[in-house]
Design goal:
By secondary structure, the protein is an alpha+beta fold. 41% of the residues lie in helices and 24% in strands. GO terms for molecular function: kinase activity.
Length: 249
């Protein structure tokens, strides 16, 4: 049995306690999410509220890949969060990660600070009359533009992965979560528009976001809207087709 435990210097004083919590994950904390793939718990440690994400144990082949060829999801989450913060992009602060190996990766955990957010992006989709919706969408577009300008291609840019905090006075903060699928690369206009496809945007939402992005990027509204809508509709059609095929089985 071999393990790799990395903790942010700001949290080094609680390293021993946190390591103990991770080794006793099943017995500590309160469940936030208990899914088939991943489990998230929240724990209180030295007066701080932390979220711990335990990733699903990979199959035999993948476990060897994660030990020798590719960084684990936990490690990527920690390192990507650190990069985002360096860019001035908000995400729950990365505290630590733990990898346990035994003939491959057996367990992995990512620890971050708990964020008391007000709602997530899904609310804007499900409630067209959400208060200040248009303003929030414009600020979200500015947030996404900042990602792209810093060469961040967030491959899981989907409705549940942006937490939103209302600071009052029409000012909102956006926090990215579920970070392990990300590329750091030059973002062409095509890649930027494709990056909006998973957000499940309505026609009205596409209009608002395209107008704001066109101003920021210096493209025409017509070109921006057309490409964003094309990628958005293609993705929605693909997902709906999959759902239809499942229903027929």
């Amino acid at each position: 049995m071999q393990e790799n435990f990395v903790i942010h210097p700001d949290y080094s004083q609680m390293a021993a306690k946190l390591r103990d919590v991770l080794h006793n994950f099943s017995k500590t904390g309160e469940y936030v999410t208990k899914g088939e793939r991943n489990i998230i718990k929240t724990v209180q440690l030295e007066g701080r509220s932390l979220n711990i994400k335990k990733f699903k144990t990979p199959n035999a082949f993948q476990s060897l890949v994660y030990q020798y060829l590719r960084k684990s999801k936990a490690r990527r989450s920690f390192e990507y969060a650190t990069k985002l913060i360096d860019f001035g992009i908000k995400t729950p602060f990365p505290v630590a990660y733990l990898e346990i190996f035994s003939g491959g990766l057996k367990e992995s955990y990512y620890v971050s600070e708990h964020v008391n957010y007000d709602f997530d992006f899904r609310e804007l989709i499900h409630n067209p009359r959400f208060k200040k919706r248009n303003e929030i969408l414009r600020q979200f577009t500015q947030f996404t533009f900042k990602l792209h300008e810093n060469g961040v291609n967030f491959l899981d840019h989907s409705p549940g992965n942006t937490l939103i905090m209302d600071n009052g006075n029409d000012n909102y903060d956006f926090y990215l979560i579920d970070l392990n699928r990300m590329r750091f690369e030059e973002m062409s206009f095509e890649k930027r528009m494709r990056n909006f496809r998973r957000l499940w945007l309505s026609k009205t939402m596409v209009k608002i976001i395209a107008a704001e992005y066109a101003k920021l990027y210096g493209k025409s509204y017509e070109e921006t809207h057309a490409l964003m809508l094309k990628h958005s509709r293609a993705f929605q059609k693909k997902i709906n087709s999959k759902k239809m095929r499942r229903r027929r089985r």
